[in-house]
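Final report, Chapter 2: Outcomes

The project's central promise was a pipeline that accepts a single protein chain and returns its three-dimensional structure in a standardized token representation, suitable for archiving and comparison. That pipeline is now operational. To close this chapter, we reproduce one record exactly as it appears in the project archive, with the input sequence first and the structure output second.
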Amino acid sequence: MVSIFPRNRHYRVILLNSLLGACLLLAGLTACQRAQSPSTAIQAGNITIIDTRTDLTDRARAKQNVEDTLIRYPDIDCLVGLWSYNGPAILSAVKDANQQGKVPIVCFDEEEDTLQGIADGHIYATVVQQPYEFGYQSVRILAALARGDKSVIPPDGIFNIPVKIINKDNVVEFRDNLKSLLQQADTQPAPAGPGDKIQVAFLTNNPSDFWRIAMAGVRKAEAEFNVACDFQMPPTGTADEQQRMVETFIARKISGMAISPNDAENQIDLINQACQVMNVICHDSDAPKSNRLMYVGTNNYIAGREAGKIIKEVLPHGGEIMLFVGRIDAQNAIERRQGIIDELQGLPLP
């Protein structure tokens, strides 16, 4: 009986489950779990991407996705987090399963738990975007635009902030430098009242430690360029929350806004409405089909390619991986995921 099972371990599991009445188990799964079935697997070179699990920025769900993966795929070869909080969520679930150091983790950004995980040897590497620069450069550019200086807009409308790869070899130095930046922001004098300061806003796509770093850059730029910046993080990271905040900025008639859109395709009208009354730039995640003036941040496709290189380093002989992200329709998630797939497939850079 066993000899007729296919060699691939997941096909063996699927067949065995069907023999044991897996249809009864499937009936009890949530719609989300059924949608995230192995049928969405992508073969990229010698590596199989089993699926991309989403959590809609719900931290508990982010961890639950990892826990479900470890149960369903006990032989998973690598876990990959695409958004800032996914790395810590993966690490927490792996620790609870007593699998730390046994299942390689590759992730993005520089949350403290991620950096500690690298230092402890539980996370292999992370691709960091330098969010401090997101905040600093966005405020600098909005201040210049408010004063009529359009030379700050690059010809291609992109201000690229390169990524860095942080692993066990450089995590201590990187962590120390990051702490220094945050300490400087903490000791920065509180901005005075609006007065004659230029009024701008910086809107994130969710609340996370990643954005605390960007806030440090914002505060530094406020002092340097005589700006008052309203820094806002949507409490649950939804497009509806972002809409209400943008509508408030429009009503207040501020001079400029930097936004990381949660759902670029469906927020074009909102962004264009803001563009009619203020200078609008995107950061972190772009909305290239809108009338925004420019994008400040990482080339997320290239960041995905860098993550793909790390995955190939972790799995030189191939294997099976799972991707985790907040929303698959966010532009940065789309680009990072595609970058990973193209790198694993060995495609040339476009």
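Archive annotation: Residues 304 and 336 are 4 Å apart (CA to CA).
This record, like all others produced under the grant, will remain available to the consortium after the project formally closes.
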